[in-house]
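Worked example 3 (structure in, sequence out).
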């Protein structure tokens, strides 16, 4: 008996979120040349909070699962701090391959914390493996993690995986726009408090020439988070997370468009693997029990 086709909405939304986050990372690298990671977090969330609030006009800002939301804020803020710290010392390619370990962590954590309904099918597990292999072919030859920034990136990946599982859990109780809004408020508060505690001084206004860069960080981070949160509401966590393997492909496109770089044959092969893995998640069909298990 053939089951209904799995909806492509979740993976497609995650691909959109990944594109937004890729643009954000480029802007973060520019800002980190002059600002600390905590300063970037404060200005990024301060810009994002009003944008997120404007999306909550019809829903209100009430939250049901406060404890899960608090966990999402804590893990997400920690991941952001580690990632922004790593962004100063690692190339975007290095960050990309390290962050591709996150879907595997999500696929492992989700069934343990959210139940058997999140157990990934063999096809999803194959897509995870193919996507990771493609990512390694794209950026593997340039990977340099033998320094402290690589450890920061690994920590960001693990914390981010936990945050994504919390987002998936919140999808059953709270509106994604409300979750995004309260994350901005919580992360801004934590970063502002941490900066004051560690430095003993308030955060100064950033240089005028960085205002546009920080605005881009806040805008694309908000768009990416909204798309990501809706993605986890629409499909199982492992399937959605695996769709983020398009990140290295977006990085290659950025090199071609803005830095006049041309990918190596290995990178092209890796891009094909990543694309195939993503498409298999978007247009796959499930049969029998698998279909019911993976349909939200």
């Amino acid at each position: 008996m053939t089951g209904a086709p799995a909806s492509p909405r979740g993976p497609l939304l995650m691909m959109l979120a990944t594109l937004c986050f890729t643009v954000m990372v480029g802007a973060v690298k520019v800002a980190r040349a002059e600002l600390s990671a905590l300063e970037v977090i404060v200005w990024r969330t301060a810009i994002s909070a009003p944008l997120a609030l404007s999306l909550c006009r019809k829903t209100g800002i009430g939250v049901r699962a406060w404890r899960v939301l608090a966990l999402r804020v804590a893990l997400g803020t920690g991941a952001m701090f580690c990632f922004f710290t790593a962004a100063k010392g690692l190339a975007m390619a290095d960050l990309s391959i390290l962050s591709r370990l996150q879907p595997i962590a999500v696929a492992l954590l989700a069934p343990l914390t959210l139940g058997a309904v999140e157990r990934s099918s063999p096809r999803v597990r194959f897509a995870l493996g193919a996507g990771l292999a493609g990512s390694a072919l794209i950026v593997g030859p340039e990977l340099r993690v033998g320094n402290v920034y690589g450890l920061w990136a690994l920590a960001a990946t693990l914390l981010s995986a936990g945050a994504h599982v919390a987002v998936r859990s919140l999808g059953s109780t709270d509106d994604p726009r409300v979750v995004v809004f309260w994350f901005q408020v919580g992360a801004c508060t934590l970063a502002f408090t941490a900066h004051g505690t560690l430095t003993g001084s308030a955060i100064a206004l950033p240089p005028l020439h960085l205002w546009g860069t920080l605005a881009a960080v806040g805008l694309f981070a908000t768009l990416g988070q909204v798309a990501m949160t809706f993605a986890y509401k629409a499909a199982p966590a492992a399937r959605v997370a695996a769709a983020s393997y398009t990140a290295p492909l977006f990085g290659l496109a950025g090199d071609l468009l803005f830095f006049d770089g041309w990918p190596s044959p290995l990178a092209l092969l890796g891009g094909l693997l990543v694309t195939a893995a993503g498409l298999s998640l978007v247009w796959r069909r499930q049969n029998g029990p698998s279909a019911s298990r993976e349909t939200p």
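Notes: The chain has one domain: 2-294. The beta strands are 2-5, 285-287.
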